[in-house]
Every structure is written in C-alpha cells, then in structure tokens.
Amino acid sequence: MIRAKKFFIQTFGCQMNVYDGMRIAAMLNARGMIQTPDVTDADIIILNTCAVRAKATEKVYSALGRIRLAKKPDALFGIVGCVARESGADAFRRIPDLNFVLGPQSYHRLPDILENPDAKLLNIDMSGLEKFDALPQMEKSPLLAYIPIQEGCNHCCTYCIVPYTRGREISRDFDDVMRDVRHAADTGALEICFLGQNVNGYKQNGKNALSDLIRETAQIDAIKRIRFTSSYPTEMTDDLIDLFRTEPKLLPFLNMPIQSGSENVLTRMNRPYSLKLYIDIIDKLRAARPDIQISSDFIVGFPDESDDDFNQTMEIARRIKYINSYSFKYSPRPHTAAAVMPNQIPENIKKERLAKLDALLNDIQREFNDTCVGKTLSCMREGADKTGRNTVYRTPYMQQCIVNIAQNSAPDIADIKITAASKASLRGKISD
Q: What CATH number does residue 396 fall under?
C-alpha cells in the first residue's frame, strides 16, 4: 500500500495569512496529501509568513533553522508569503538547503516543487489575482469564512512594507467574490469576513463597492453574520457607515487603525487624515449603531515621536475607548521611507511607551468586558478550548467566551448569558 504524502503548515501573522494557509491546505488535500501536526513526519513543510515587523521575519528564520534539524532528510521545506517576497533569492543564502520561496501572490505554484523535488523553486512575482483562479474551491467551509476581496495597498504609509510584499491595490471581480461567498454558504459557513489590506477601498469598475458586497451577501439566508477588516479611515464612506444602521447581519464591531494620536506623527507616517476626520467618523458610526465597538492598531516610537506626540496617542485611546487593539513598537522595515528617517527613537523609550499604552488599552478592554456580565449575546462557536472540555464562542465584538459544554454538543450559534469576565475573555452559559 502506497503511503499518502503528508504536509505540515505553520501560519504567521494576519487574517489574510490565515486565509492563505487554509487555501494552501485545501490545494494539497485536493492532490491527495494529508495534513500532519508533526513536522518530523511531514514530506513537505511550509511556513506561511508575515513580514510586517522585523521580529516577525526573524521568527520565521529561527523556525526554519529548527526545522532543518528536525525534519526527515528527504522532506521538502520552504517559505511562502510576505517574508518570501521580502527575502527573495537571499533566503537560499541564509538557509542553503531551502527548497522553495514563493511570494503571497504565487503560492499556487507550490505543486511545482512536488513535480520536481530536486529543483529550487523561486517565484515572488506580483501576478495580480491569478492565484484566485488557480486554487480549487474548499470542499467544506468553516463556520467563519474569510473572503479576500482585494490585495495590496496604494496608501504607501512610510513604515509599511505591504506595497512591496503584496503590491499595489487591486480588487477582485465582484461576481468572483460573490461566487466564493455563495460556495462558502453552501458548504457550511455562517459568517463571512471580507478581507483586504485596504478592505473598504474595494472598487470594481467604479460602481461596485464593499457596501454592495455586504448588501448582496446579507440576502443569503445561510449567512448570519458579516464583518470586514482592515479599514482605512478616509475610505469609510457614508454609504458604508449607514449599513451599520440598516443591516442587522453586519456585526457591531469595526477595526479602524489610527496608528497614532498625533497629527505630526500621522503626517510623517503619510496617513493623510486629521484627528477631527477620524473622530467624526467614529461619531457617525456610533450614531448609526449605538452599540458599535471599535478596535485599532497603534505604533509607538515612530521616528521623531516626542513625549507630547505619545501623550496624544494615550489621549485618543482614552477618548475612543478601543475595546481590542494591537499595539507595537515601531520596527524599521526594508524598502520603506521611515527606515531612513532621522531621529530614530531608542529601544528603551519605545519599550517604555509601549508598556504604558498597553496598560491603558488593557484597562479599557477589561472595563468593557466587565460591562458585558449579565448580558445575553448571540455568539458563534469557534472550537474547543485548550482543555478540550469546554467550547469557545465568539461574541459580536470578537471577544472569546468560554462555555462549559462539550464541542460535539454545542450549537453553532447560541444566545449566551455572560457570567464572568477577565481582561482576555468572557465566561458564559447558553440561555434557556
């Protein structure tokens, strides 16, 4: 009996990478391969990578170093995604026995290395939307289906490597996106999350926008929840804001990164919006949907950030009360303007500022979680917790809620009464 080949895949980074990892797995499953959680048992090992911060890139190479010692002698291994695009052929210099390096728009070429395992496969081309046509549909969708609608970004923030690793902004065909949405709904999805580096900048022939995708998706009975990430402030149109008022399937939660509360820093970041514009958008969203909650991304220690600039970031966090945010020390990235700016902030100051901001954001998150105790929220099942005895649900505000019920008897969507809260999660029970 011929043993089926096995593959191991580890995904780093954002939700776009989570989607890419799922599609890579589906592509290899369609070729008769079996996924394994054991890297030492795999015939092909894939690291699906993120290059948004220097630490993320080094984490990938550290993992590669461990894998080359642990893998079977004849196992193929390599990287796909943004680190592959960033590193290019240099990846083979750093890890000489690497077999493949494939960028985020060319990972559909992965089967080529299976056909010719003695070759070195390098492809970091910006091939546009070709991969979406080349990848097979998933046979079964998870309850939460990620649907990419555009790739790349035209905003060219001075700190961001995305325009280099993912390319300039390009939107998928409206009908192709809706075909994927309907397939996901037909194969088990209850929630659709539209993805893009600049998701609310989606435009197709100047007439179809993200709001049109949401309206059409909401007409599908099987789909119960809709959301999108990640949003750019100047692309948050009144039409999109109004959907939070009129469309009940659109969750009352939005990630809209501000990055800094200082207009001086925002200017150096090449993020051309004023604090007034940003706050006005939040006010409109809260008028349209009073229960909406906002999350954000923050960068501290950007070149030439003063104490006053940082204090303004603290102030905007207090004012908006972000319930779930991602905050990072500024990390110089190759191919970006900020990497060569003068007045780089010392590491110890960046570390100190990040600790202060994180403490504030944690307090705000804990305060919001506490307000949920006693409420009943409609939540969707995510999976078993680490113990395997409980089930993790996700609230409309993206909080994890742990329920003392075995996953095999847990309903996909349930009204859950929140009984306890911590900074990181909630606990609850299914309402009678």
A: 2.40.50.140
